[in-house]
Q: What sequence folds into this?
């Protein structure tokens, strides 16, 4: 099967640099040998910089959901009270995983398109002193909002001293998230978004408080036991066979990030997000997310009245090789999403946005106020 070279503007997987893909075709090595030891220690050192932590960062052969599962099973016990702050599909997923493992989950459902309100979290924590942990999605990919994690952490950690478990799948490496400075207890992310690597790896780190919780946590765990990951990392290994090609890829991708400079990477994402939002507004489209919390990695757009979003996206794929993402869950068919994270620059987005404008016109869209509207 011949795979097309799409301008893939979904919020993950994202396009990968050629040198990352090339590195992935390297030969297999003994994952209990010296080459792997060198590889994994280099990767973890670079990951510590991206995570902003002095703690170990573990690489899991799993997608982002594996990291969410690992956050829960390594810190909690069945019946532990958990506050799951959900701003969309991925917040719901985090809550569902905790439920699946027997946690006593109270869900705070934030209106889609809005960010979590630190005052509401304070109220919820004050109302139930038995809560042990709070689950938060840093960047909600289904709606295109970024939570103010620093403000939330001040409430959750400084005021209430709860465990703070963070889904950073669509934020880390794109949007600042200094884990230690913001006192996050578990931060997990995945390869296929800001990290510019094909899907299949997760990256996760735990604070000293999280390790203390690990000691007493009784949830069932095996594959995602971070205690095992830590013991093996000490000797330059992983407990289970690692997805070697992805390790080769992430090693190169992290070098790229270090070369560009993390501050520069964050600035690029902010600039591209701004460019995307302004271009969409100039087309007369309405953005879904609260502008005060609009994400720098993904923008959700209301599908204009009278336009079939599924047909529009299909037409863009066929006519222009531009691939955007549909809305998820209850927003399916009502919004569509444009990813601008990872290996992306203005030109990639310009091409996608021009195609979108043309596709919309073909579908009969006339911006409000435009001649003939
Ligand atoms: N959380 C967020 C915020 C995500 O964007 C995603 C993936 N879109 C996930 C979790 C799940 O990650 P994965 O699909 O890699 O399991």
A:
């Amino acid at each position: 099967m011949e795979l097309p070279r799409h301008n893939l503007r979904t919020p993950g997987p994202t396009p990968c640099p050629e040198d990352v893909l090339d590195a992935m075709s390297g030969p297999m090595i003994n994952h209990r040998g010296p080459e792997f030891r060198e590889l994994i220690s280099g990767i973890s050192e670079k990951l510590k910089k991206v995570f902003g932590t002095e703690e170990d960062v573990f690489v899991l052969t799993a997608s982002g959901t594996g990291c969410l599962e690992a956050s829960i099973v390594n810190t909690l016990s069945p019946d532990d009270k958990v506050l799951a702050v959900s701003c969309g599909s991925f917040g719901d997923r985090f809550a569902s995983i905790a439920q699946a493992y027997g946690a006593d989950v109270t869900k705070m459902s934030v209106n889609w398109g809005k960010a979590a309100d630190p005052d509401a979290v304070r109220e919820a924590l004050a109302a139930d002193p038995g809560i042990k942990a709070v689950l938060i999605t840093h960047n909600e990919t289904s709606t295109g909002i970024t939570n103010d994690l620093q403000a939330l952490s001040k409430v959750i950690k400084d005021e209430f001293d709860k465990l703070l478990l963070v889904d950073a799948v669509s934020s880390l490496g794109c949007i600042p998230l200094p884990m230690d400075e913001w006192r996050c207890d578990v931060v997990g992310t995945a390869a296929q978004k800001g990290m510019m690597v094909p899907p299949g790896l997760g990256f996760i780190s735990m604070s000293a408080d999280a390790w203390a919780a690990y000691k007493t946590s009784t949830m069932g765990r095996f594959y995602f036991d971070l205690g095992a990951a830590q013991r093996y990392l000490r000797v330059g290994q992983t407990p289970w066979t690692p997805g070697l090609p992805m390790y080769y890829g992430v090693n190169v991708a992290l070098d790229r990030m270090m070369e560009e400079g993390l501050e520069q990477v964050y600035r690029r994402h902010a600039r591209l997000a701004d460019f995307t939002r302004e271009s969409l507004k100039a087309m007369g489209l309405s953005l879904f997310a609260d502008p005060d919390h609009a994400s720098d990695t993904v923008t959700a757009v209301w599908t204009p009245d009278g336009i079939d979003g599924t047909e529009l996206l299909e037409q863009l794929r066929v006519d222009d090789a531009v691939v955007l993402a549909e809305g998820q869950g209850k927003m399916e068919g009502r919004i569509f999403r444009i990813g601008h994270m990872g290996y992306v620059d203005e030109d990639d987005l310009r091409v996608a946005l021009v195609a979108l404008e043309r596709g919309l016109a073909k579908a009969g869209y006339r911006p409000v106020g435009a001649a003939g509207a």
Summary: The chain is about 40% helix and 15% strand. The CA atoms of residues 9 and 321 lie 10 Å apart.
